[in-house]
Amino acid sequence: MDKAKLERLKRAAKNIRLGAIEAVYSASSGHPGGSLSIADVLAYLYMEEMNIDPNNPQKPDRDRLVLSKGHVTPGLCAALAERGFFPKEELKNFRQIDSYLQGHPDMKSTPGVDMTTGSLGLGFSAACGMALGSKLLGYNNRVYAILGDGELEEGQIWEAAMFARHYKLDNLTAFVDFNGLQIDGKITDVVDPTPIPEKFAAFGWNVIEIDGHDFVAIERAVGAAKECKGKPTAIICHTTKGKGVSFMENEAKWHGSAPNKEQYEQAIAELSALE
């Protein structure tokens, strides 16, 4: 990856993090921690990888992204704004009455959203259906799903994983946001879903483990997924919940809490100072 591309992706991820904090603060509610942990993956997919067009968001053969961990909509909305699907100023209307930016992704009202999600596990199943549908229609597109590590406690995830392998959905890539925390604390203390890579491998998936904040690693993993034939790929992203904001990092309480004015100002200052 050349230096210019890397710097461009870093700026995009920084803007996504800033946008996510702006959205949650403006709404006085939302999910900042998991939005910050997936900002780098979102930046790479939306700004570099995906075949999408903000001027034609319903293009039939577009690449698709399903945010299966649908509660981290602040991050998704910030990424869509960064890509140009709607003005960044709209992030200040997040979760407001009559706003098209709501607390979970809404494919009927928000430009660029490919699937309405919320109840954990459902989005992954939908992504599998999209991938199979694309193959039946003869499209040469890709389908991406972003899953939470706590979400892997849902049985539907493993039904979908079995489905995807059975139908050889090599056009499907699942990113697992492995930050180790969910709303009730450590995932290993709630209902331990580990070992995550070994479980996907046991279901017949191609498995890649990476640092989910390393753009070079993300790019290589996405490229390897596209080269893998006959099976879907799971990219296990080791991430930090709340990445980029010191007091939010590795703190489960920021799973679904909004910052107050002082915390907001500190978060914006810290993120703005990132290179």
How are the SSEs ordered, and which strands pair?
Elements: H1 3-27, H2 32-37, H3 39-49, E1 64-67, H4 73-83, H5 122-137, E2 143-148, H6 155-166, E3 172-178, E4 181-182, E5 185-186, H7 187-190, H8 196-202, E6 206-211, H9 215-227, E7 233-238, H10 261-272
Parallel strand pairs: 1-2, 2-3, 3-7, 6-7
Antiparallel strand pairs: 4-5
Helix pairs in contact: 1-3, 1-4, 1-10, 3-4, 5-6
Task: Please provide a written account of the structure.
The chain contains ten helices and seven strands. With 275 residues, it is an alpha/beta fold. The strands form two sheets. A five-stranded parallel sheet has the order 1-2-3-7-6, with helices on both faces. It has a two-stranded antiparallel ribbon with strand order 4-5. α9 links the parallel β6 and β7 (233-238). α1 (3-27) packs across α3.
Structural class: alpha/beta
CATH top level is Alpha Beta
CATH topology: Rossmann fold
Taking all residues together, what is the mean pLDDT? 98
The radius of gyration over CA amounts to 17 Å
Strand order of the largest sheet: 1-2-3-7-6
The ordered string of helix (H) and strand (E) elements is HHHEHHEHEEEHHEHEH
Throw out a few tags for this protein:
Rossmann fold, 275 residues, alpha/beta, globular, 10 helices, 5-stranded parallel β-sheet, two-stranded antiparallel sheet, single chain
